[in-house]
Amino acid sequence: MSFSDQVRREVRRTINDGDKRFACLYGMLLYTRVFTEEQICIQSESEDVSELVQELFKSVFHVDITASDKSESGHGSFTITDPQLIEKIRSTYQIDFLEREINLRNIVNNSTSAFLAGAFFICGSVTDPSKEYHLEFVTPSQMLCNDLNAILGSYGVSGRMIQRKKSYVLYIKDSECIEDTLTFMGAQQCTLDIMNIKIHKDMRNKANRLRNCDEANINKVVNAAMRQTEDILLLIKYGELQSLSPEIQEAAKLRLENPELSLKEIGELLTVPIGRSGVNHRFQKIAAIAKELRENESRSDTAQ
User: Fold this and answer.
1) Residue 197 covered by a domain
2) Phi-psi category of 238—alpha, beta or left, where left has phi over 0 and alpha has psi -120 to 50?
3) Which domain holds residue 255?
4) Residue 129: inside a domain, yes or no?
């Protein structure tokens, strides 16, 4: 079952009184692709939505409708061609065949969530949040897209609109806005699922950042240790190490014996333990002498 189907199944359970049924069916009819004087067609690929369409028509218009073009699972398209029923639907909801727009008089007694659910059932979808955050409504006209965006905006949800072929798409990519939309429609469990996925993603990203940071630190320690070892060996070669203080000689000896240790760890091993900066200061003195020796080598090679 897709994540969209999970949302539909959960939201369907909330359409449980007369006002919500009336508003939900209004959302379905208003946002269905085909709504003309000749026919009304409600398409669904969801078994839950197909069953709900039949329940809503029975509740609101007291008629039984059956799906045509059924799939093996029993759901499909509902096509209404009876002129009397089409006119009854149009007059009940006051829908203009040519310029459909939201009529707020059909959404009463806090049934906006059910209306939005109806629109989602017919033209909405939401991507599996483990892959990406994306919720969209593929609406049949620019006016309906604008109206839907205005309703969501009144509840603090920010969407964007684009034209896709002959349809107008209202889409939401902000995870919190998606959560707010699903919660408003009645899909609280699906909202919690998104939150849990976000937590796992965040933990995984933090773990990756820590691992990358650790790797960078390890590389930094290794590179520094290699430079320090080269400097110390150069001083030994020219007999310069013995002329330095016992403290510096001790730090140099520990470095040669422990090339993998950090400055902090070397400082802890000294006879008189010191901090990282103290150890670094001793190696800087070694590095300065090593630099001078290399410059002398270079001048000698040039002279030859």
Assistant:
1) no
2) alpha
3) 205-299
4) yes
